[in-house]
Design goal:
This protein is an alpha/beta fold and 289 residues long. It has one domain: TIM Barrel (Alpha-Beta Barrel). The protein has ten helices and ten strands. The strands form two sheets. It has an eight-stranded mixed sheet.
Length: 289
C-alpha cells in the first residue's frame, strides 16, 4: 500500500484498512493543528486508488473495516466518492463499516441527498471535529465555521443516516476562556446530539501556528487541574440522549467514560475524586498526540 506520510487515523480505526483517497486537509488553517501542514491538499487519481484497492485485496483476505484518509474524504466530488465506494464494495464483500473524517465546511457544501447517497454506498460513520462551540475561540483558531454552522453540519450528517462521532478539545480557549469554551461547547454538542462524543486535551506541536502565540505568552495552556475542571463543567452542561462519551485519548490527563445521560452522575463523581487526588492524573510524559 502506498502512503504519503504522515498518515493519521482515529484511535478506534486501529484495526481498519486505511485507504488514502485524498492527501492532506482541504481546510488546513486551524492554528492548533499540525497534522497536514507539510501537505498540499489534492484528491488522488482513480487509477492510484484502484491500484491500492487491488493491492490490498490481493493481500488481505478478511477486511471488515476501512477508513478513508486523509483529512476529509468528503471534500471529493460526490460522484467521484461514490465511484471509489463502489470499487471498495466490489473488492471487499464482507465489509462492516466504512468511515471518514468529515470537516464541517465540506459537509455544508453537500446536500442531504448527496450525503444519503454516500451512506447508501457504504459510509456509515463520520468523525467530526467540533473542537469548540465558543464563537470567539472558533474565530481565533481559524476553524472557518460558526457554532451555528457546526450544528447544521452535524445534524445534516445524521439526517443522512450516517453516525456521527464528534471530538472536542479541552483547553482550546486557554485560561482566559475556559468557562465559555466548556459551556458553549456543551451547548453546541447537545444541539448536534451525536452518537459518540470524545474529548481530547490540547497539546501544541511546534509546527502548529498556535505554538508561536504560546511562546509569546499570548495563549496560556491549562494546568492538569484546570483541564479536569473544564471537563467536569462540560459534562455537567451536556444534554444529549444516548451518547457514548470518552476522554481516553492519549492527550488527556484523566479518562472518563460512559453513556450519557445515564452515567453522568458516576462520571462527575469520578472527576470529583480525581480533583481531590492528583495521583489519579496521568503524568505529563505519558501524554501523546
Amino acid at each position: 500500500m502506498r502512503y504519503e506520510q504522515p498518515l493519521f487515523r482515529p484511535p478506534s480505526e486501529a484495526y481498519s484498512l486505511i485507504l488514502q483517497v485524498t492527501i492532506g486537509c482541504s481546510h488546513n488553517r486551524c492554528t492548533f493543528c499540525s497534522m497536514y501542514k507539510q501537505k498540499k491538499f489534492r484528491v488522488r487519481s482513480m487509477q492510484e486508488i484502484r491500484e491500492d484497492i487491488a493491492w490490498a485485496r490481493a493481500r488481505y483476505h478478511s477486511v471488515s473495516r476501512i477508513f478513508l484518509a486523509d483529512g476529509d474524504a468528503l471534500a471529493m466530488e460526490t460522484g467521484v466518492l461514490l465511484e471509489v465506494l463502489a470499487e471498495i464494495k466490489g473488492a471487499f464483500g464482507g465489509l462492516e463499516r466504512i468511515s471518514v473524517y468529515a470537516g464541517p465546511g465540506n459537509i455544508l457544501a453537500k446536500t442531504v441527498d448527496e450525503l444519503k447517497a454516500v451512506r447508501e454506498a457504504g459510509v456509515t460513520l463520520a468523525y467530526f471535529g467540533l473542537e469548540s462551540g465558543d464563537e470567539q475561540v472558533l474565530r481565533e483558531v481559524k476553524k472557518g465555521v460558526t457554532p451555528q454552522e457546526l450544528i447544521v453540519a452535524g445534524r445534516k450528517v445524521q439526517e443522512a443516516g450516517i453516525e456521527l462521532s464528534a471530538t472536542v478539545i479541552l483547553g482550546l480557549g486557554g485560561r482566559e476562556r475556559w468557562v465559555e469554551h466548556a459551556v458553549q461547547t456543551a451547548e453546541v454538542a447537545s444541539r448536534i446530539n451525536p452518537s459518540y462524543l470524545a474529548a481530547l486535551t490540547l497539546m501544541v506541536h511546534e509546527d502548529a501556528a498556535l505554538a508561536a502565540k504560546t511562546g509569546r505568552g499570548e495563549f496560556s495552556l491549562l494546568s492538569p487541574r484546570q483541564s479536569l475542571e473544564e471537563l467536569k463543567l462540560m459534562i455537567e452542561k451536556l444534554e444529549v440522549s444516548d451518547c457514548v462519551f470518552r476522554s481516553n485519548h492519549a492527550s488527556n490527563y484523566y479518562a472518563a467514560g460512559g453513556r450519557l445521560p445515564a452515567d453522568k452522575k458516576a462520571m462527575l463523581a469520578g472527576l470529583e475524586r480525581a480533583l481531590k487526588d492528583p495521583h489519579m492524573l496521568k503524568e505529563e510524559y505519558f501524554r501523546g498526540f
